[in-house]
Amino acid sequence: MISVTDKAITEIKRIQAKDAMATASALRVKVVGGGCSGMSYKLGFDDQPAAVTDKVFEKDGVKIICDSKSFLYLSGTELDFSDGLNGTGFVFNNPNAKRTCGCGSSFSA
Fold it and tell me: Could you tell me the CATH number of the domain that includes residue 47?
């Protein structure tokens, strides 16, 4: 499962309210190759699951979609949102990450 904090839900809904294309969409969370630690997180809006193997999670009316390959690296992850002094953005608290880069946007498993 991928859990989502209340702060992240609020931010996702705020983005959806500002962007008409994202209003009826789910947030797709995935892992792609790249970044200084080997793998990076990628977020985007998607109309629906692309495959039968996609995992779909829902909280407070917000749907989260994750492909099965990415889910291997993201299982148990908490998606949060930070608006503190160290920067603003989504934060992945990933228990599967063995090493992360300094900014937290890439990791290795």
Answer: 2.60.300.12
